[in-house]
Amino acid sequence: MDHTKKRFGKKDAVFIGLLLIIAILIFFFTNYFQKETGAMVTVTVDGKVYGTYDLEKEQTIDIKAGDKTTNILKISDGKAKMLTADCPDQLCVHQQAISKKNQTIVCLPNKVVAEVTGNTKKDYDAVVQ
Ligand SMILES: [Zn+2]
Fold first, then answer.
1. How far is the CA of 111 from the centre of ligand 1 (A)?
2. Structural domain 37-128, CATH architecture
3. Ligand 1 center to residue 64 CA distance, Å?
4. What SS3 class is residue 17?
5. Residue ranges per structural domain of the chain
């Protein structure tokens, strides 16, 4: 009886140890993901992908419909913001800068949508590891 109890205790310890390792792994994995996701911003115009841009690179993106620039998106400090737009409501210009995954800036009149996506090379690496 004593023997059975001992074995159970050892098995339990191994199980708890495994859980601990898994918990630590999940913790690091989640942390890594949170840091690395949302590193790109995808701009779509009228439902079509206009371009995908690195949020870590400072840049100004002219969003054009034909020859005309309708919106200008500015990326700085890891955030994307609508700098100017020729839409009548100017709602997109007043929207907050986006930096986290799935955050969007929408310009309804111009059908322009900027969305932070996690489709980065870093994400891919994280999945593979
Ligand atoms: Zn707008």
1. 8
2. Sandwich (2.60)
3. 13
4. helix
5. 37-128
Ligand 1 centroid – CA 120 distance (Å): 27
* Residue 127 predicted with pLDDT over 50: no
Å from CA of 94 to ligand 1 middle: 9
Distance, CA 71 to ligand 1 centroid (Å)?
7
Taking the alpha carbons at both ends of the chain, their separation in whole angstroms is: 45
Q: Is the pLDDT of residue 76 over 50?
A: yes
Tokens 């140890």, residue? 17
Q: Which residues of 11-22 are buried (b: 16+ CB within 10 A; e: fewer)?
A: eeeeeeeeeeee
Span 39-74, pLDDT tens digits: 899 999 999 999 999 999 999 999 998 899 999 999
